[in-house]
Design goal:
Layout (H helix, E strand, L loop, with lengths): L1 H29 L5 H5 L8 H62 L4 H66 L3 H14 L4 H13 L3 H14 L4 H13 L3 H14 L2 H7 L8 H13 L1
Helix pairs in contact: 1-3, 1-4, 3-4, 4-5, 5-6, 6-7, 6-8, 7-8, 8-9
């Protein structure tokens, strides 16, 4: 049991590590748009293959540990069921034996009373013994059924957690691929794959909208951002992408309103807006950014 507790703690800590890596990856992805020029000048890979290899080895060890835990779990379950069945059978056998001993002793004492009285007593004792045994059988069947339901429920939880970990690992790998991919069309395919695994991922929708804007599909970007806002109404990235999309459609007033909402949610979009050339024709946005710069 101590080894199981230690293994479960290790799984818990590794899950925390995966979540931290996910957050770090998301934070890195949010800054990729402002670093496009710098990425083009890199002379060596941005990500070290040793880090990726370490994550893969850790995930492989996690799957191996969980498989071993599952095997040990079922082995212990089988042993407990066998022990319970053996105890039940032994208890029932002892009970019947004791009742027959009692019957024999009583019969010897009451043999002098008369055959009719003895037959009545024997019939009553046998009926009582059968009722007692039937009650014990029903009781143990109910306990076994309850134990089986509990084990099935726990097995379902373990399988669900395992599937969730595998899905999270796959999504993490897809985000890494998206960050390393330079072609916008390929990025869209990767984001589509993420949305297949996480249909309610507002973040994936907004990044797909960003890629759609870059390939000249602002209408698709608008639809994706609106859907993302239904899931996360306070998504500043969605409002920022809407501002970009409407700027491409020459709807400058709408673009200004959405950009103002994005800046209200997060001040980081001020600097990011200043680097967007598509906002240059929008006088209101440039006045907003100019007033911000003057105050800064």
């Amino acid at each position: 049991m101590c080894e199981k507790i230690i293994m479960l703690k290790q799984l818990k800590y590794l899950s925390y590590a995966i979540v931290i890596l996910l957050c770090a990856s998301v934070s890195a992805d949010e800054n990729t748009e402002g670093l496009d020029a710098t990425v083009g000048t890199l002379e060596e890979p941005l990500y070290s293959p040793f880090i990726e290899r370490y994550i893969i080895d850790e995930l492989k060890q996690l799957r191996t540990d969980q498989q071993n835990l599952k095997i040990e779990f079922y082995k212990e379950l089988t042993d407990r069921q066998l022990k319970l069945a053996e105890v039940s059978a032994t208890y029932a056998t002892d009970t019947v034996t004791y009742f027959f001993y009692l019957i024999a002793a009583t019969s010897s004492v009451l043999l002098l009373v008369g055959w009719n009285s003895l037959r009545d007593i024997r019939s009553n004792i046998e009926g009582h013994a059968e009722a007692k045994i039937s009650k014990l059988i029903v009781d143990y069947e109910a306990r076994l059924d309850q134990l089986e339901k509990s084990l099935v429920s726990k097995s379902a939880v373990i399988k669900a957690n395992q599937a969730e970990i595998e899905t999270t690992n796959e999504i993490q790998a897809l985000w890494l691929r998206a960050g390393q991919e330079s072609a916008w069309e390929q990025k869209i395919k990767i984001y589509d794959h993420i949305l297949e695994l996480r249909p309610e991922s507002a973040e994936a929708m907004t990044y797909k909208a960003d890629a759609a804007i870059e390939i000249g599909q602002p209408q698709l970007a608008i639809a994706l951002c609106n859907k993302a806002l239904e899931i996360e109404p306070d998504s500043g990235h969605a409002y920022f992408q809407l501002a970009c999309a409407f700027s491409d459609l020459q709807a400058f007033e709408i673009a200004y309103d959405y950009l103002l909402k994005a800046i209200t949610i997060s001040e980081d979009y001020r600097a990011q807006s200043a680097e967007e050339e598509r906002f240059l024709p929008n006088k209101k946005i440039m006045e907003l950014l100019g007033s911000v710069n003057s105050h800064g």
